[in-house]
Records
---
Amino acid sequence: MIHITVEDRTGSVETIEIPEDINLSLMEVLKASEYNILATCGGMALCATCHVEVLSGMEQLHEASDDELNMLDTLPDADENSRLACQIRLNEQLNGLHIKIKGSLD
């Protein structure tokens, strides 16, 4: 199992368990776990409504693509720990990842 700690916009923290062979993005798992993620573009890195801050485990992630970096550049609260959840594919190396959901709900 992959264990990911998620802090939502209210500060509530929960650890979710995901099967290692699930082959989904973090955004898909967050939506399935009923976190309020807009994901307007459906995971194409075109809207940045699945913005997360990586609190720990950044070194386990692949580098962000140019498309992802371009979308993050449009966000006023993005920083070097920002990623788009739709661009993070879950695998066993991400066990212990700790993220915070960012962005507004509108």
---
Amino acid sequence: MRIVIQAFMGSIIVHALYFGSAIMVGSIKTSLYKPDIENAWEQAGALQNETVFGKVISPSLYSLTFLGTALICAIAITSYNKIVIKKRR
């Protein structure tokens, strides 16, 4: 049971790092963006009237990635424990 809890905690950490890095990259790109208004004025074509921020992914896909990452973490934890126990003997 301890390995399962550790695996889920590892999966939570991996997903938090993923979402945190995506938010950080987006905010950095947004803060550093400088539009070229003069060039855009000369090349005005069909303008969009809708803006899309981000992308939509099914929540079931997130649950599958969460469980898959937890499985990988569980395999890594058990492998590490076996290696450490072998070295101690």
